[in-house]
Amino acid sequence: MSRKQHHDYSHQVYDAMAGCLACKSCAGQCPVKVNVPQFRSQFLEVYHGRYLRPLRDYVIGGTEWMLPAFARVAPLYNAVLGQRWVEKLMRKGMGISDSPVLSRANLKKKLRAWGVAEATPTSLALLTEQQRANSVIIVQDAFTSHFEAKLVMDVVELLSRLNLRVFVMPFSANGKPLHVQGFLGAFERTAARQAERLRALAHFDIPLVGIDPAMTLTYRQEYIKALGNEAVPEVMMLQEWLTTRLNTLATRPLELTDPGYKLLSHCTESTNAPGSPKAWQKVFAAFGLELELVSTGCCGMSGTYGHETRNTATSRTIYAQSWQPQVDADENAGKLLATGYSCRSQVKRYSAQTLEHPLQALLGALKRG
Ligand code: SF4
């Protein structure tokens, strides 16, 4: 059925919903808990029960399953992606622009080479109570692990330097891209499987911690809505967990050089977990470092929104109005840190700069010190 043949008011709703970044800032701040991304996802599911989906939706929804397969041939994947005709095909044919390249380092192999154990019920069962109290489990997400493998390694290195025993949960899909695209049935099935894996690890009473804030917050929002409170173990963001261990972070006085770091938070994180930026300040203070909080809105990427060809102009405008003045300011050179994968990716795309994650800055300061 073509859109011209039958007038259907839902087409106008679809067009309006396409303007939503699904950043969840409204959901975190609304006093009566209006959650636009939630009803946007519900609408998309119903709408596409009647009208065909664009290929783009399937590609984005399936990203978490495709990335591990592509990662096995990362150099080849990146070389193909760099071809102009492939870029054009993706931009015009699939509706996906500026797709990022994969990390060349294979995270799984690197972790194995470093002797970092996978978090499995078998490996955790071998720990004594004292060892468990000093352990942490990193819950991987598709974007950090496949596009920023070095960040995962840096987090592992920093935590190991702090005398913590680090386990990394084998990668499995979280389902957030499915939820954003309105594949709610598939999201619920993915969430149920992932929650089961998390429960099997949570049983050992070792903190579960995610690196990317937006992906980690999915466990306490969309997961709980889909599966209920009891079915989903707590997965903390890095700074939330680190603030529970402040007195163990720097056990001796450190004389670290303080460049005067400034934090650009992910908008989903700062609006849905408002204590997050201050928690980072406390973590830095434990190392004797200052961290200025910079007030910005959304960077315009918001997960995969900025990669949809139909959204690139808006995404660029939002970036120019919010993050770009901070990123391009001379006085901020070498000082800015960003917590979100998608924000760092947007900065790389439009300002050709690489911002560090706060823990990478801490690691660098410790190494220099
Ligand atoms: S763009 Fe963000 S703040 Fe605006 S409606 Fe969508 S989720 Fe809410």
- Give the bound compounds: iron/sulfur cluster
Please give the order of strands in the largest beta sheet.
Answer: 1-3-2-4-5
Uncertain residue ranges: none
Task: Work out the helicity level.
Answer: 40-55%
Structural overview:
By secondary structure, this protein is of the alpha/beta class. The chain has a domain at 253-368. The protein has 24 helices and eight strands. The chain has a five-stranded parallel β-sheet, with helices on both faces. α12 packs across α24. The relative contact order is 0.12. The mean pLDDT is 94. Iron/sulfur cluster is lined by residues 20-26, 36-37. Residues 20-26, 36-37 line the site of iron/sulfur cluster (SF4).
Keywords summarizing the entry:
alpha/beta, 369 residues, 8% strand, single chain, 3-stranded parallel beta sheet, 8 strands, binds iron/sulfur cluster, 5-stranded parallel beta sheet
Topology at a glance:
Layout: H1 9-17, H2 25-29, H3 36-50, H4 55-61, H5 63-71, H6 74-81, H7 84-94, H8 107-114, E1 117-118, H9 121-125, H10 129-133, E2 135-139, H11 142-147, H12 149-161, E3 165-169, H13 176-180, H14 184-202, E4 208-210, H15 213-220, H16 222-227, E5 236-237, H17 238-242, H18 246-249, E6 261-264, H19 267-272, H20 276-286, E7 291-294, H21 312-321, H22 324-328, E8 336-338, H23 341-351, H24 358-368
Parallel strand pairs: 1-3, 2-3, 2-4, 4-5, 6-7, 6-8
Helix pairs in contact: 12-24
The structure holds iron/sulfur cluster (SF4).
How would you summarize this macromolecular structure in one to three sentences?
The chain has 369 residues and is of the alpha/beta class. It is 55% helix and 8% strand. The termini are far apart.
